[in-house]
Amino acid sequence: MKMNFIIRTEFLYHCKKVYTLLFFLLLIFQGVWYMIGVNDLFANNSIHLNASAIIYRNMAVMGIILFAITAIISASALARDLETGAANIIYPAIIHEKKYFLGKYIGVMLVNFAVVLGYPIGILLFPFLGTGTPDQFGPVPIGQMVHGFILLTAPNLIFLVTFAVFLVVMTRRATAAYLGILVVCILFLLSTSARKDSLYPLAIELLDPFGYCSVESLTETMGVQELNNAYLPVTSTLLFNRLIWGMVSLLLFAVALLKFNFKAFAVRFVKKSSQETAFTKPALRAKPSAPLALNHSFSFNLLKSLQLSAENWKNTLSSPPFLSIMATLFLMFLGYNFFWTSAYYLTASHLPLTSVMTYIRIPMMIVIGIMLLILSGELLFKDRTSSVWQITDAMPTPTWVFVLSRFLTMAGIAFLIVTLIFVAGVLSQWAMGFKDMEWGLYLRELYGSRFGWLTCLHLISLAFFCGVLFNSRLKGHIISIALFIFISMSVDFRLIEQLRFGFPFVPGVFGPEKYNYSEMNGYGVLDAGLFWYTGAWTSLSVLFLTLSLLLWNRGVDRTVKERLHILLQTLRKPGGRILAVVSACCLLLFGYFQYGIHDNLIRQAEYQTDAQKEAEAAAYEKDYSVYRETPQPKIIDMDLVLNLFPKKRKANYQTRLVLKNITARTIDTLHVDWDKKLTVEKLAIEGRTLEKTQDDTNLRHAIYRLHPALRPGEELCLTIEARLAYKGFHQSDFQSDLTYNGTVLGTDFLPFFGYDRSRELTNNRKRLGQGLSLRDSRMSGADNAFSRANRFESLQSDGLTWNMVVSTDADQRIIGPGEEIKTWRDQGRNYAQYTSQRPGAMDFKIISAKFATREFICQGVTCQLFHIPRHTYNLAVFQDAMKKAIPWLTARLGPYPHSHALVIEKPFYDDEFLSFVNVAAISENRGWTADIKEKEDGQYIHLIVAEQLARQWILASLKVADVQGAQLLTESIARYYAFRFMDEMWGPDQTSKWLNQAYDDYEKGRGEEGIVEKPLLLVDKASYISRHKGGLALYALAQQIGPKFFDHWLAGWVAQAAQEKDFLTSAVFYEALKEVLPSGLFPFARDWLEKRVQYSLSLIHTQVENQRIALTVQATKQEHDNKSNIQTVPFSTSLEVGFINDAGEMKEIKRIMLKAGEHVYGLDCSFIPKAVILDPHHWYLVESRQSCFRKL
Amino acid sequence: MKLTIQNLSKTYANGVQALQNINLTIGRGMFGLLGQNGAGKSTLMRTLATLQDADQGQIFLGDIEATREPEKIRRTLGYLPQEFGVYDSMSAEEMLDYISRIKGVVKKAERKALVEYLLHRVNLFEVRKKSLNSYSGGMKQRFGIAQALVGKPELIIVDEPTAGLDPEERTRFYNILSELGEESIIILSTHIVEDVTSLCADMAIIGNGQVLVHATPREIIKAVEGKIWAKGIGRGDLDACKDTFPVISIHIEQGKTRILVYGDTAPDDSFEAKSPDMGDAYFAVIRGYADMSKFSANI
């Protein structure tokens, strides 16, 4: 028999099967579907919907459908011979077993490739399916697609097929291949979920069998043009990844080829028989004399289902494949717990908090879910697959006993899996010496409906229902798994926005953030709806189970008509009637819970889909943007009495505002905009009348006519009484400004006077969709007089004074802006009074939470740390950071501008740093729970505390105009001071870690840019530029002209600028900077501030002769224009070259005059270096720093 | 206690009429059911075992109507299907205990005694701890017999039970059935016509979904007495004989071909009379030559 014949036979065998066509169609569907999903990861409208980066990601990710299909096809090649018994006939007829193996292997590989072609076809079809307008698509990147297929999909497929075939050869079972591919899938999911938080991303990129992590890492730092058109660079990491897994494939293939021989493979047919016992021996045992007590009562049947369940349970547990899967899962849970880290801290990982230990269930739920669906189907049809049904179905046991016993068995298996997470968590905590185990949290997370045990039960019931409905194990598997994957992906990609349509998802599982659990506030408002969602899914699950009982096919397979006939017969019996009543009750309950969700979410909480939100924002802009520059009075003083009721998510207040017309025009209309949670009960004005001329309750904008009009310089007093309340519950919005514990209430509790630009759509892709004109910036330019006359981040007020009395629940503490005059307790409520020590910006927050406090004095400033009572882990480090940063900043910027400095912990989901007046609020996962073992591990806390304190100095001094570049002044300077603080506290070598981190964050931010990346000087509400690039830019400039000189100049400029009457712009800063910059550094400053420039440096070759070193450097400089087009420009600049000694320290730095192109540069070194590094101090924005380093 | 089958019919979705208006009354003792492959035996067996539904007709066991109350029938039923599987991971002892449990044997001690008794009875006690998967075909069949006997069934249905058993095992098995037949109704479906003659007091022959005859074996044999004629022929003459005579069966005896034909008289002088046995009667009936109308009262 020739090998060609075997290949052809195997290929044609699959081609003739209907499922092969089905698989092909499924992969076309997956191609389209994944294109839609991955598209949403990129925000910028300039990124084509069929950008090459999106295609590369899809080519690498492969997808769960593809995994499953590959497993099914590949496993069948050899296992089919055994399962059908064909091996008995075929094997003796074949002489060359290796040729047979090769023929099968190549045949099945070809089939897989043929089927997998559906995936790129789906990707190619995507532009023709009406998902976007033609201008949103670029030319089809065929070359990149082929490149991606060859680089990613093809090797991945070869690995998967080889692995599946290898497992079948080694175990002689198709199930081993399924489970093996499931394990690969787990490994892949773990890699992708752990990469972003890991301290060892390189290791994870290498471990990822599909190279997806490398592709993700490369594409997330690409600019728009690269994302659209570039070929994926084959970096050393990606190359190593491909080589490692290519070698693994080769090894698996070689072992499988060597191991495969007919004798060993067909051993399954040569069973070890028990010793034959003759039937003719006389029976030794007498017949039981007493009559048997047969019991068919309900209670006995109930007991019986428990006993049968225990029996099934025992059998499952004694199965080696099952045990090996459980062991693998357990090791993975342990591995995740031990190596879970947080990228913020660079050297330290996260403390093993209970919420961290239980998190693994979320990324693993797809895999665990699929496993449970498969096991449920297998168990349900166990009697069928083992052909015992003819015996058991004729037994006098009611159907419900069988179904219930199997459900209980599966419930036990699910319980075991979540308990493994629990055990792994507790063991990890114990091993890491962590004592604060939260048993209640373990219980709620692992055994509840938030991807816990209850969710597992929901999935099991789905598997039962699908299996029973289609009366087929295989169809049940396919339908239930496809349904589960479809819902999961759709929820993840937001194709299903409302979770009430996404069985079995509940709020807090897939949310706006990766982690939805806050140590301070739990799941917050997301918990409020849990009862309703759990109720809905549980009643639906019970309905699935009762329908399974009603529709279960006992005996021979029946036609649909016969089954309906039996169903009608069953419904006439008492048992059937009971089940029908239970089903009806479940349906009613499901409807009731769905109604509850609708009522709370849609009616009360006024939930809006993304499309509705966008439409509302667009309507607002279309209707009211004519008033964008209508002059409005500014608040100059506020008297406020605010009562917070966090547990009820309510508040009320009375306030007296003094507003002043600071424009040169008379103001005769007052525009009032308000937030959804706000109900204004009284709006009165002293000495004037307000006539409402327009009241748009849909878009929440009213227009009042002022009688008499407010002339320039005149003031008016406005009295407002209002209520704040969140009604119902939400499924994804944390509503953190009025929540149970950790309220951070912004100034939007007041109405907004004027046209609120923050309500406009800033993403051009969305604007395009809503028929709005495209924006080239989120902010106005400095030439816009109206914006220039407004204060950045404080549009309502150029500076105000306040006096506020705030009350909250008895167990919470109020934090307000300014000086705390007094606190007191009255009628079971806590009160605090705050006043401004100087006029300030209107960007403050009012915070209420259950806090513990640590207080200390530093240079006459009362410092307070407010934290979650349990989070005492790193208080000493925070205290140390404040104690060091305050004197250091005082030495440069003068005395701290307030009497008290507060650092506050806030719930994690508000991940942005907040700094207002004398308060810095830092998210709970930013240092509070870092695992600090060494002194150096605390550097991150020092960095962020220094930055936030520096911001308070800057905000107290600078009044910045609301135009492009504002954040250069409000954020970049503070970030620069933080880097300098790190320099002086820990040394420049340590700072370089944080500079690298900032650079990485800047690169990632570029990938998520929604409009066009602006130069630093024109930064437009883009923190990835102002904080990450801005801090780096000022640091690089300081290094060039001398840090001490720069510090001195900057402090002087800040002091001088604080005296300015007009609002400041970045141009003013830049002009002042240029005055002190040596002219030789102008191009350098221009690159950093005025342009978007990137250098590409590559140390191609090095040659050492004694202490003379010749470096061959390839250098290019690329400039981006304002449409993201890139052009290479000639250049010549001074570049530092660092020489590293045997101990790995940089001992000497020399300079070369770097020119564009490839050149050789000769340098003398005082010692023979071990390695050399270009631009060691990060003075240039280098595309990738990996090529700047070379060992000698 | 009697099993009464009235007007039972079943047509499959593909149009095959598996059962056509079957009427039978079966009393205590062993009842043999003979028929060719595809005659409808297994459909009838499965329908009696409540695994399949009839389109029409009723089945009564005493006063229990099986078609309406299958659960009640199952309580008194022991069923050994023609082909059955076992749970891979279970031993004979565990599986019998499992079956006893689902059959309703509550007490553990009773279950243990019953399982041991049945294992002894089918002589699997010594290998009771072995996985059923490692059993030979004969041992597995014996296990099947044991499971059918759990719970003292009043109606035992055995479908081709001796397939895979050697002659000695077959005898032993029939002895057990005979013992049980004193207290229960046993329906034995088989191809081996001699077994029916020796074991069953009552029997039926089924063909094309219809009961062709229902009588005692003796009556059936008697009905064809003097009507079976035998002749030795050359192999080349076989086709011509088939065309000429009502051949009911062809036998090879000591290398020579011998045909049996049905007729009130010998077709010609070369035929000699043969004393009929059940095999001859069976073939005469299923070939449609024998007139069994006198037994129609039983059908």
Keywords for this entry:
heterodimer; A: 1192 residues; alpha+beta; 7-stranded mixed sheet; 5-stranded mixed sheet; 29 strands; globular; B: alpha/beta; 6-stranded mixed sheet; 4-stranded antiparallel sheet
Question: Mind explaining what this structure looks like?
Answer:
- The complex is a heterodimer of chains A (1192) and B (299).
- A seven-stranded mixed beta sheet of chain A has the order 5-8-3-2-11-14-13, with no helix packed on it.
- The two termini of chain A are 58 Å apart.
- By secondary structure, chain A is of the alpha+beta class.
- In chain A, 48% of the residues lie in helices and 17% in strands.
- Chain B is an alpha/beta fold.
- In chain B, the strands form three sheets. Chain B has a six-stranded mixed beta sheet with strand order 6-7-8-3-9-10, sandwiched between helices. In chain B, strands 2-1-4-5 form a four-stranded antiparallel beta sheet.
- The longest helix of chain B is centred in the middle third of the chain and has 15 residues, at 167-181.
- The mean pLDDT of chain B is 87.
- The interface between A and B is large, with 54 and 64 residues.
